[in-house]
Every structure is written in structure tokens, then in C-alpha cells.
Design a protein that fits this description.
Tetracycline Repressor, domain 2; globular
Length: 209
């Protein structure tokens, strides 16, 4: 192994170390209260070292979001390519996939939705925004293909598939964020699976011919 390759591997390990520490800090302090100094302390590094890898807390949070976007993309592509399902069955499978993504990492998914709905996107590097945009567009494309299949089979209304995909994505993100707000206000548990049932049923009724 050459010197340059060793340096790159060490850089990757250090970056991973910081991201693991950040997730721990976000989980017990919350994103808004957490500081780069808190994360540096958890990672047993100096704050200056963190800034060599991430220019700010928003960029660190967004980098964590890439992992869950990658998982979302894989799950949605699997649903869209699954054979032998009727359009409405495919929508049910899509609902389960989106719930599985939430279960995979609720904290990072919630922070990702908050990131998308705020001005913090302006704090991210062009490269990171490009990665997020590509993954999100790929996921929306997979959802759109599910709606397109139903339209082509005469089951769903003749509307632009990508518009329907954006409606579904907005529905999902809104429910996740509102569910988290209610969990904090009511000091209870967010039963997202149960909460998703009615909105998905309403959506299905609305697009059915």
C-alpha cells in the first residue's frame, strides 16, 4: 500500500469517527443544542480537526443524511422493479419501504427533513448539495415509475408521475416531522406506522380512477 493510499484510508477512518460521534451527540443533545465542540469532545479530537473534514455542523448533519438517502434509494428501486405486483399492491409495498427507512434511522431521517425545509442548505458545499440532489432525484424517479406503471395500466389518474412522487414525498416528510413534534409535546411515542395508514389510503383513493 502506497503512502497516498494510506493517507486516504486514514482520512476516511477519521471522517467516519467524527460522523459516529456526531450521531451520538445529536441523539442525546438534539441537533440544535449540539455544538462542534461537543462532537469534537465525543470523538476525542480537537475542534480544529473537525473543521478539516466538515466546514460546519449543518454540513456534518447533511453528510450523515447521505447514508439514509442511499438506503432509501436502494429500497425504492427494489419496490419499483419488483415483478408481479398490481399497482395498488406496489403502493402498499412502497409504504412499507418508506416506513422501513424511518425505522432504519429515525434521528437522521428527521434531521434530513428539517435540513431540507430550512435555509441551512445555503451552508452546504456545492459537492454535498450535488450528492444529496442526485440521490433524492433518483428516489423520486423510482417513486414516479411506480405511479407511471399504474397510469399505464389504467388504474391511476392520468397525472404526471413525478408530480405524484413529489406529493408522496411531501406527505411522508410532513408526517414524520409532525409526528416528532407531537412526540415531544405529548411526551409519548411516535407510532409512525399507524399514522401513515390513513394518509396513504386517502392518497390511493385520490389517484385511483
Amino acid at each position: 500500500m502506497g503512502i497516498q493510499e494510506r493517507k486516504e484510508r486514514e482520512k476516511g477512518r477519521r471522517r467516519q469517527q467524527i460522523m459516529i460521534a456526531a450521531k451520538r451527540v445529536f441523539s442525546f443533545k438534539g441537533f440544535n443544542k449540539a455544538t462542534m465542540e461537543d462532537i469534537a469532545s465525543e470523538a476525542e479530537l480537537s475542534p480544529g480537526t473537525l473543521y478539516l473534514y466538515f466546514k460546519n455542523k449543518d454540513e456534518l448533519c447533511a453528510s450523515l443524511s447521505l447514508r439514509i438517502l442511499q438506503y432509501l434509494n436502494i429500497r425504492l428501486k427494489h419496490v419499483s422493479s419488483e415483478k408481479g405486483l398490481e399497482p395498488e399492491q406496489r403502493l402498499d409495498t412502497l409504504k412499507e419501504a418508506m416506513y422501513d427507512v424511518y425505522e432504519f434511522d429515525p434521528l437522521i431521517l428527521i434531521n434530513m427533513f428539517r435540513l431540507q425545509s430550512s435555509e441551512t442548505l445555503n451552508n452546504l458545499s456545492p459537492e454535498l448539495i450535488k450528492d444529496i440532489t442526485e440521490l433524492l432525484n433518483s428516489s423520486l424517479g423510482a417513486m414516479a415509475s411506480i405511479f407511471e406503471d399504474g397510469i399505464n395500466k389504467g388504474v391511476f389518474i392520468d397525472e404526471k408521475p413525478l408530480v405524484l412522487a413529489n406529493v408522496l414525498w411531501s406527505l411522508f416528510s410532513g408526517i414524520v416531522l409532525w409526528g416528532e413534534s407531537k412526540r415531544i409535546m405529548d411526551k409519548g411515542k411516535n407510532n409512525l406506522k399507524l399514522t401513515l395508514e390513513i394518509p396513504f389510503e386517502i392518497l390511493c383513493r385520490g389517484i385511483r380512477k
